[in-house]
Amino acid sequence: MADFVNIAKQFTEFYYNQFDIDRKQLAPLYRDNSMLTFESASVAGTAGIVEKLSSLPFQQVKHQVSTLDAQPSGDAGGILILVTGALLVDEEQRSMNYSQAFQLLPDGQGSYFIFNDIFKLVFG
Amino acid sequence: MADFVNIAKQFTEFYYNQFDIDRKQLAPLYRDNSMLTFESASVAGTAGIVEKLSSLPFQQVKHQVSTLDAQPSGDAGGILILVTGALLVDEEQRSMNYSQAFQLLPDGQGSYFIFNDIFKLVFG
């Protein structure tokens, strides 16, 4: 029953680890019909998404996941994930809170790709 | 193009308004295959969801939406929504931050219902 939870955890761990090491290498996790909304700016497609992520104005970044919840997202075998966490960039001493929603879809080869990706910093 | 954004805004405005007035009346927005994960406790189906929401340990509640982002969530015409906001309950002076992810699906009658609902308080 909770298999989707394990998949969600493994996927996000891999994603944030890769993001923090070298976010230019995230292309294999997206497809040409994927969407990213990062701080309310939306791009679509692998190339546009990786370009957007690569151009973010920081060099070093470290994601720290606080909570992760997941649900099956439909008949196609997708998984909806809500992550809350903290982000530390470059020389900043204080982390920023963020929330991120992913919808993963099966890639037909036993793995998953990111179809929906919405990232938002949380202030206050 | 941005029609899903308007639908997302109208839907969540209606949802939070109804939640804050009388959350027992939210049943028409769910279906028997809907899922709610509220602070990491999961329930499924309209009856279970409304029972869970009704049993939350507060009487008065006021949601205040800070940000809303939306994306189309698949071929079925769904909409994925990420809300960040603040919640004020009962006599508390300080609001709590929350994040909430919804997936809306078309109900076949020109409207939408909530298929996925993940609510999480954000601390720190």
TrEMBL record, chains A, B:
Keyword check for Nucleus: yes
Keyword set includes Cytoplasm: yes
CDD domains referenced in this protein's UniProt entry, alphabetically: NTF2
Gene Ontology biological process terms, A to Z: mRNA transport; protein import into nucleus
Cellular localization per UniProt: Cytoplasm; Nucleus
SUPFAM superfamilies, alphabetized: NTF2-like
Keywords: Cytoplasm, Nucleus, Protein transport, Transport
Ranges where the NTF2 domain occurs: 7-121
Gene3D superfamilies referenced in this protein's UniProt entry, alphabetically: 3.10.450.50
GO CC terms: cytoplasm; nuclear envelope
Function per UniProt: Has a role in nuclear-cytoplasmic transport of proteins and mRNAs.
Name this polypeptide is given: Nuclear transport factor 2
